[in-house]
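Retro notes
What went well: the complex prediction finally ran end to end.
Inputs used:
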Amino acid sequence: MKIGFIGLGIMGRPMALNLIKGGHAVTVWARRAESMQPLLDAGAKGAASPAEAARGNELVISMVADAPDVAEVMRGVASVGQPGLVAVDMSTIAPAAARKIGEELALAGVDFVDAPVSGGEVGAIAGTLSIMAGGSEAAFAKAKAAFECMGKNIVHVGASGAGQVAKAANQIVTGMGVLAVAEAFAFAAKNGVDRSKVREALLGGFAYSKILENHGQRMLDRNFKPGFKSWMHEKDLNIVMQTAHELGLCLPGSAATAQMFSAMVGSGMGEDDSIAVLKLLERLSGQE
Amino acid sequence: MKVGFIGLGAMGRPMALHLQQAGHELAVWARRPESIGDLPASICATPAELGRCCDVVFTVITSSADVEGVALGKDGLVEGLAPGSVLVDCSTIAPDAARHIAEKLGEKGIHFLDAPVSGGEQGAIDATLAIMAGGDAAVLDRVRPLLDCLGKRIVHVGPNGAGQVAKACNQMIMVAAIQAAAEAMRLAAAAGVDCGKVRQALAGGSAASRVLDVMGERMVRRDFSAGIEARLHHKDFGLVLEAARQSGVAVPLAAVVAQQLNALTAQGWGRDDTSSLLRVLELA
């Protein structure tokens, strides 16, 4: 398939590489020209604009930072006005923003799929991302071959925006999950108990989770390198809280978690992995 | 002086009347002309037209987007107000939005004050509002005689946006206090104690507050009619949390109170008084 790919950051670069490995003809565009070089070396064509990345392709995919960035590149895609083109955004943005972008693209005859991912840089490199998609049956079917090069667990969740709703739900679970593990470790340490033994004991029971296993180990190692940066998790939880505000939805746990992440960003831990919430807890309880 | 007024709701209407009664010539524009009623004022067709005939214009409307639309949109005040004239916005909006409007008007030489108020409908009627102003001190001094018609305590907090920051702080403290009063009333009732007596006992001690006095009384009487419509506090808490987030400070209590307000909204009580936070507690 001929695919345009826009946004070649930590996630976008390996995802685009996996499309090339999967045998697709990929055209790339990134704001910074130097980000494009590794892809050109791997056989991609370079484009001079988002519009050019879309033109003549069957599929165009974006992986950028925030809703205004998605809206901007998709305006370029819409300007091509190529009927039958399917546009896929794999960034994490608010469900409402995704629906609005979908409506604008529809006016230009472009079908839109919101398909945010979970699994981080590791999953992007390994091609094992979880992909949660929202959009029409036909558009999803067209994008599926591309998704299969980038991810393993691919779910068509529902109509436009449904993928972002699933991703927001994912961030609720992972945000509170990381905080829960950090609190359990702070609790163990303040009680004078070896946290690595606590982790080991818990791994066999109902408290088992990937987060306890992977993030927990990194907390023990005090390896705060991202991974998934705190400021990005904070941004995602803000999407959750804004949506809850708009819908009239009471989410006390998410609210408390969002405040912890906000405090991390405010106190200079934004570039650390979100497991650095452990450091914040330790500071609050005088455990430093 | 010829004074313009936009936003003739529960707050705006008595404020506009005070200005008129103090001897100022009043001109108004209203999105819904029927809201003007029998107000003794000349009626303008657009905000721009209102701006053309006034030295000072007041706005008391709901959201950041509404104020931006009226000030900067098509046929907005910016198209009518002369250089040197003043827009006084008494709405509660985001500090960022206030700064943005000030900057855009400033490019045309039009002055802007963010001047949100506290004191509710009763304070507006009694002309006892607390007014927290952000903007140039000299501009505030020029319009101070007008503000004196509306309120008792007028504080220059700082530059543009500072008034809205003060208002956000006001809302954080007030609604958290309403939640605290509701929890106390809930605990008293659950323990089989007379809420009215508890409120009465507390009024003499360290927990005494205006909120316990006014909202506590409503809770005891179970009179949940507004008052201050809870949907406005819900809206304000969106602004509070966004401002906190942008500043990178944790506001754990405000975040939880916001969730109780979300629940209140979901129950369909947004147009009732914020003392309905007691009813949210009774759901669980």
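What we learned: Chain B has a mean pLDDT of 95.
What to try next: split runs per interface for comparison.
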